[in-house]
Amino acid sequence: MDFRLARQSDIPELTAVYLDIIEHMDSTGIAIWNEVYPCAFFPEDIDHGRLHVLIDRAIDGRETIAGAFALCGSNDGARHISWENKTAKALYIDRLGVNVRYIRRGIATRMIEHAIALAKGMQAQYIRLFVVDINEPAIRTYVKNGFKQADGVFDEPIDESLTYHEFGFERYVGTDERPKA
Q1: pLDDT tens sequence for the chain (181 residues)
Q2: Residue 93 and which of 38, 44, 64, 81 are 20 to 30 A apart at CA?
Q3: 14 with 53: CB under 8 angstroms?
Q4: 174: exposed, middle or buried (C-beta count within 10 Å: 0-12, 13-18, 19+)?
Q5: What's the CATH number of domain 2-172, 2.40.50.840, 3.90.1150.10, 3.40.630.30, 3.40.190.10?
Q6: In terms of C-beta density within 10 A (0-12 exposed, 13-18 middle, 19 or more buried), how is residue 157 classed?
Q7: 87 near 53, Cβ under 8 Å?
Q8: Any idea where the domains of the chain sit in the sequence?
Q9: DSSP string of 75-91?
């Protein structure tokens, strides 16, 4: 398996993969994504070179998207969280999803490790992300991969009747001594 930047031509497969993820999440009581989010963000993520895909290549050369994530320079919720160092350069993992045919194969960890390597290459000191409070499998995955929950909650209004409560997680990835706030 190899990583590469997503291409516009990947959008139909990405959408199918994420619709399967959404169906799986819904069936386990984690109804936080839908046909609009995260799929509507793929074209912009691709245009900005921030959507990364993990490709599984079959013997016959066919490619399957095993997972994907966006690595972003900012996040709307960032100002609502008490980060270890608010002024340090940070990148944000967003829209991380694992193809349901690849669940429990370490794909999420591989994608996190790749995101960390990319962040280090971009001289970021932290990698951060947000997780909706009911998404316990994602929270366990991030904690297992060295992320610490920061203080605070980002309340993201979805519509008049729904607000997601999102926890901020971060992991120091800098190579120097941790900068002081």
Answers
A1: 899 999 999 999 999 999 999 999 999 999 888 888 899 999 999 999 999 999 998 777 788 999 999 999 998 888 889 999 888 999 999 999 999 999 999 999 999 999 999 999 999 999 999 998 889 999 999 999 999 999 988 887 677 777 778 899 999 998 766 555 5
A2: 64
A3: yes
A4: middle
A5: 3.40.630.30
A6: exposed
A7: no
A8: 2-172
A9: -TTGGGSB-S-TTS-EE
- Phi, psi for 41 (deg, rounded to 5): -90, -10
* One-character DSSP codes across 44-57: HHHHTT-EEEEEEE
